[in-house]
Amino acid sequence: MSNKKVSLISKGPYVILDNGLVKLTILKPQGYLSGIAYGGLDNVLDPKSNESSRGYWDVNWSLPGGQDRYQLLRGVEYSVVRTSNDEIEVSFKNEYDPSTKGDDFPLSVDIRYILKTGVSGFHCYAIYERPSGCRAFDLAQTRMAFKLRPEKFHYMAISDEKQRVMPMPQDLLPDRGKQLIVPESVLLMHPINPDLKGQVDDKYQYSVDNKDGGVHGWISSGPVIGFWIIFPSHEFRNGGPTKQNLTAHTGPACLAMLHGTHYIGQDILAHFGEGETWRKVFGPFFVYLNSTSDVSNAHNLWVDAKNQRLLEEMAWPYDFVSSPYYLNAKERGSVSGRLLVQDRYVSDSLIPAKNAYVGLSAATTEGSWQTESKGYQFWVQTDSSGNFTIKNVIPGVYGLHGWVPGFIGDYVAKARVTISAGSHSELSNLTYVPLRDGPTIWDIGFPDRTATGSYVPDVNPTYVNKLFVNSPEKYRQYGLWDRYSDVHPEFDQTFTIGINDPKKDWFFAHVDRRDANDKYVPSTWTIKFNLKSVTSGTYKLRLAIASATRSDLKVFVNHTDEAHQVFQVTNLGADNTVCRHGIHGLYRLYSVDVSSALLVRGDNSIFLTQARGGDELCGILYDYLRLEGPVASETI
C-alpha cells in the first residue's frame, strides 16, 4: 500500500488528484471524469470516447406532462472543498437560478470526488437541491456511469453466480448482431469472440434488487485489473430493498444507479411541485480498484471486492465527507423493536416475523415505500425471533414498514417513528395482521412478492444466454413469454387444486397466447377445485400480484359471462417485467368478493382472463392466490 500523500494539480482544463495508487484526471469546471490511472494502465476508462462520456453523471427528467429529456450533469464552478496530506475533496457545482427563463434542468447539482491516502479507489457523491421558486418537474432517473476500455475489460461479475465473458460493443451493431423484438436484446450472429455466437445479450438480464446487490464490476486482461462499484448503503436509492437496478452491461459499462423507474414505471417518478424545495445527497459510493500480476488469480479480485464491500459497509456512515448535508454517525439515530404476525388460521399464538424486511421511509401508507423517491429509506431483515435494529438513520419522522415472507400484504405502523440525532428508540412489540377473512379453501404459490414459485420454462435454444442455463434465475432468458404458446399451443392453462404443482404447471407469466395465425390473443387460465359443501356468505379471493404490464384482468366464477364476473381491472401496470426478463416488479394485492351463490357443491372453476389481446409483452406475474371461506357455519 502506498503511503504517498495525496496531491492536487490544476493543469489547464484539468484537475489531477493522485495518491500514488490511483490518479484521477477530471475536466473542470464540468466534473467529467476523463481518466483513471491505476496498476500500470494509464487510463482504465475508454480514451477513444469523448471526455464527457467516460465517467459522468446524467439525468432523465421532464416537465409535467412533457416528453422525457436526457442530459449530462455538468458543473460550471470548480472548487477545492478540503485538502490535506491525507485527503482531497473537490466540487463541481452548477447552481440553478429559479428566475432564469428557458428549459434548463430546474435543480442545483454539486458533484464531489474524494481521494484519500493509501486507498485503492475513490468516493463519489452529489448533492441535488431545489431552491425556493423552482418550477415543477418530474425526476425519472439519475446515475453515474463509467465506460471502460473495451479492448481490456471483457469479464463482468455482479454476483458469485453471475459472471461471464461479455460481448464487445461492436457485436451489438447490425453487421454482427440482430436486434430482437425488445430493442435492448441482440442476438449475436457474428461476434468477435466466436464462443458467444448464437447467444442473446441484453443489459436488463443483469439487473439486481437493491437488497441483493452492493458490488459489481469488471476485470481486465493485460494487466489484470478489477474495477468495482461498491454501495456501502442503499439509503439514498429510491424504491426500497426490492427495487431493481441495472449494474453492468456490454460497453463495457459500469453503472451506479441512484434513482430510476425500471421494473415499476411512472408510479415511481419523483414529482416536484411548483416552488417545492428539496435536497438529497446521492452517495457516497466507492469506486474500488484492485489488481494481480498472476492471471490465474484473476477471480480473487472478485473475492477481494466482496471483502472490500464489507469494509465499506462497516465504515458507513463515513467520517470524512465534507458536506454538512451528509450526516455522520453522531448526527444520526437508531430504532429497534420486534415484529410479530397474527393469523389465527395459521396459529393460535403470535408468530415471530422471521426474516422479514423492516424499514423506515417517508412514505406513510401500506406498500407506498415501493414508489417513494424523494427521501431516504433504511431497511434491515429481522432475526428468527422477529427482532430488528435499524442503525444510522437520518433524523426525521418516518413511517415504519414491513413485509413478511409467507404472508400477504404490507405492514405499516400506526404511529410514526421520530428519529433524533444521537438517540436510540425502543419500540414495543409490533403486530402485523395480514388480510384474512376466513379459513383457506386452497392456495397457489408462496407469498414472497415474486413469481419464483411458478413454472419457468427452458429458453428457446435460438435465444439462449448461457449464463442462465441451469440457473435459479432462468427467468432472465430472452423470449420466455413466447414459450407459453409452445407449452399451450391450442388451449390455455388449466390448474387443478390438489393435483397440479405450481412449480411444474403454473406458468410464471399470464401473457397472451400466440395462435395458429401468429396473432397474440387473450388467454384464460382455469383453476379447478372441489367443494364438499358451500358455506352461505362471502368467500374471498386474494390476488397477490408480483408484477403487471399493460394488463386487463377479469375474474369469473364457474361461467365466463357478465353475471359471473367478480373482478376487473384494466391497463394494469407499467413494470415491463416480462420483456426485461424479471420475476417481480411493483407488488399489488387485490381482495375479490365471491358470493356463495356463485359456487356449487362439487366441482367449481375460477377463470382468470388476460383480456388484452395483440400485445405479446403484456403480462401478469402472480405471487400468490388464496381462496378463503366465510366464517359462518351455515352450509348450502
Automatic annotation (TrEMBL):
Keyword Acetylation attached: no
Ranges where the Rhamnogalacturonan lyase domain occurs: 354-426, 440-627
Sorted UniProt keywords: Lyase, Signal
Matches recorded under Gene3D superfamilies: 2.70.98.10, Carboxypeptidase-like, regulatory domain (2.60.40.1120), Galactose-binding domain-like (2.60.120.260)
Lineage top rank: taxon: Eukaryota
InterPro entries: Carb-bd-like_fold, Galactose-bd-like_sf, GH-type_carb-bd, Polysacch_Lyase_4, RG-lyase_II, RG-lyase_III, Rhamnogal_lyase
Transmembrane segments: none
GO terms of molecular function: carbohydrate binding; lyase activity
CDD domains (alphabetical): RGL4_C (cd10317), RGL4_M (cd10316), RGL4_N (cd10320)
Listed name of the protein: Rhamnogalacturonate lyase
Organism of this sequence: Trema orientale (Charcoal tree)
Lineage, opening ranks: Eukaryota, Viridiplantae, Streptophyta, Embryophyta, Tracheophyta
